[in-house]
Amino acid sequence: MSNRRPSMVERRSSINEYSTQYEDSRVSSPIPHLAGLEKPLPETIPEEVDVVIAGTGLVESILAAALSWQGSNVLHIDSNDYYGDSTATLTINQLIKWVERVNKGLINNYKNAMLYFPNNTELEYQNLIQSKDYGIDLTPKILFAKSDLLSLLIKSRVYKYLEFLPLSSFHFFENDNFEKMNNSKKNIFINQSISLINKRSLMKFIKFSINWENSLEIWNDYKKKSIKEFLQDKFKLELNQINELIFAIGLCNNDTISTPEALTRIKRYLISFDVYGNFPVMYSKYGGAGEISQGFCRSAAVAGTTYKLNTKILNYDPISKIAKLSDNSKVKINEKLIISSTQSTSFLSSSTSQTTTASYEIQRLTVIVKKSCSEWFENNESSAIVVFPTNSLKSGNKFAVQAIIMGENTEITSSNTTVWYLSTIETGDQGRADLESALESMEKSILRESKNFEEPEILSQSIKFGDDVNNNFKSGEKLQYLLKFYYIQSTSLPHSGVVNTSQYRRKNSTTSTTFNDDVLFSSLPSSEISYDGIITSVKLLYELISGSDDDFFDVDFEDEDEQDDNNLSGFNNDSSINDQINSKSINDDDNNEDDEVIDSEAVEFADDMEL
Amino acid sequence: MSQESSRPQPRLVQFKLVLLGESAVGKSSIVHRFVKDSFDDYRESTIGAAFLTQTIELNPEITIKFEIWDTAGQERYKSLAPMYYRNSNAAVVVYDITQESSLERAKIWIKELQRQASQDIVIALVGNKADLEEERQVDNEHAKLLAEEEGLLFFEVSAKSGDGIKTIFQNIAEKLPVEAQLNKSQQKLANKVNLQRPSTNNQASCCV
Known about the structure:
Distance between the termini of chain A: 19 Å
Strand order of the largest sheet of chain B: 2-3-1-4-5-6
Low-confidence stretches of chain A: 7-40, 350-355, 453-474, 498-515, 561-611
CATH class of chain B: Alpha Beta
Pfam families (chain A): GDI (PF00996)
Largest interface: A-B, 92 and 60 residues
GO molecular function (chain A): GDP-dissociation inhibitor activity
Region (Disordered) (chain A): 1-22, 560-596
Radius of gyration of chain B: 19 Å
CATH architecture of the largest domain in chain A: 3-Layer(bba) Sandwich
Order of helices and strands of chain B: HEHEEHEHEHEHH
Low-confidence stretches of chain B: 41-46, 201-208
Radius of gyration of chain A: 25 Å
Largest sheet of chain B: 6 strands, mixed
Mean pLDDT of chain A: 77
Strand content of chain B: 15-25%
CATH class of the largest domain in chain A: Alpha Beta
Family (chain A): Belongs to the Rab GDI family.
CATH topology of the largest domain in chain A: FAD/NAD(P)-binding domain
Shape of chain B: globular
Oligomer: heterodimer
Mean pLDDT of chain B: 84
Structural class of chain B: alpha/beta
Strand content of chain A: 15-25%
Number of helices of chain A: 21
Number of helices of chain B: 7
Protein name (chain A): Rab proteins geranylgeranyltransferase component A
Number of strands of chain A: 22
Number of domains of chain A: 4
Helix content of chain B: 25-40%
Largest sheet of chain A: 9 strands, mixed
């Protein structure tokens, strides 16, 4: 704390003058004036800044916004001509270039990138690569309704740049079958395939898991044991229920995961349910992490951060503290230089190879298929999660394969097509075999399902998601792929470390190693399918830069048009999202005190999450 | 009050409008004049969100609400994010009539809009600082011709005096596809999650 920089209020005395001069006494928060709105910006790059950040990935973008709202003078650059770095959302054309660069060894920590365009005519291919319809995420992620990132999106107002859609369909694959998950109390009771005694056990476990931290006596003996053992011994659950809890609700990579960690993950799902509606997770339209990165970069720009794409650091001299950039400009860095692993340049290579040991691997297979896949989505939704538990695939998978399915309403793909993002933490040839095997199962399932769709009598309300593959599937129909995209990413962030904050902190502090104390390296994204762990990473870096995370996004925005917004979207209807079309409410343009109350509740909720 | 209840409420239709142009041409002053009808030294920001909103009455039935996005400086090094252009319905490309070079820059922004934004975007080319007639470098007819060739609206205005400012937005409003937008925004709202409004605060309503 002793080396703490002056806060923004102390740094920018002009703001205080502004507040007192300004008639409206409501404006009291220490907000810097909007860059570019109050005075012409300087013509050249600032010669002296507090912090330079290289790489516009999600962690770095949130960091840039947090630092600049705190009052730091930030220069944020990226060697790419797009935002997002390793969490970017790319067009097909950008994807082709990305793959070429990975295979030339130009992007650290990525390898074996392959891109196929099967069965496309030249015309289709040209349309595909020139189209703006597609946005493929390098790091696809889903957002839990109760999570630190969501709270920050609200608090920082970055959510205003984004649109979120609900996701409630979780499928898991077992015995060559897709099972639709029992994601609510109601479903558990309706489901006739579960015996009454099992229903009781399941409900008992769910009640326990909501508040598991306070029932130490139940799991104390299982601290170091697997969740599977725990669920078998303590709750007498059946294997398929155990798998469902571990792999679908918990989104764990394997069933040997420790009991406390798995309970954290299961609870995350349960408490996210019904926060904004009848779904536990959301995803952002037009692309996931890439879109959110852009939102935080814009927020940072509003707070004064300077942005330069297509720019990299050529050199840094720790003595003069001057960095030379590829646009021939020079910048003096008062505090820290933060470099994303993908942006490291040759001057650092000797030291980075020692400091950033990327020892965890993620394999990803992303395909675009010519099918709407609406059979997998809930009504009015456009995405689903599919998980393949340990040992459920022909390839004999040791780890889960997780898949996010995105339909056309996500606006990341063209009409009547779907993007399937598959991933596993399995390594080497086995990892690829697992992904291919999962893809094959999904292909068979969707062909079978869409066939069934034409014969409605087969469809019932049942939880079964398709018939037995071996018996009923004889269709000669082939699924058409527009694109197949495969690559291996490595990271220094552990697979399991994202939910337990203290564990994550400890491990991360050894991997975010300093270089001359001036340079920090941020890691590539972990294998975690949700955004959990991102804010922890950001805060860790923030603390290393500014001495403490006490004032992390400690801003109190006052939006003058808040009431308007509420009138457009905050209707007095509890059944929420599907019922928001109500022209009467749209017309109601008066100031509405009820709406103010609603909004403050939402913000309080954000504070709950200990930002 | 009685008057209000006797006539039908106008429908509010929202459009996204983006600002473009070299820095110091007065983009923000134009918006400030439109939104606040003043030319202050202090440009108030829509804090945090960085867009300002202003409504304009198109006719007794329809009120247009502009959500106005400023570049927040990201245009300086050609680093505007795709997010900026996405779903923009209108653009105001500003140059300074006393700076020849600013019109050249405006041409580049128009090209960029044609490349990045949707095809039916309404673009207005706006020459600011019309109050500085004696320092004029850009001929009115020349810029007007350019706008006609590209199919753009054209205005010369003074953010300082306020002359012509409202006309820009009024003319843009008249060209916007109101009905199409009404349908679109209803569809969009139908599935969108409203983050300002948690449905319950019950931590575990699904299972307790």
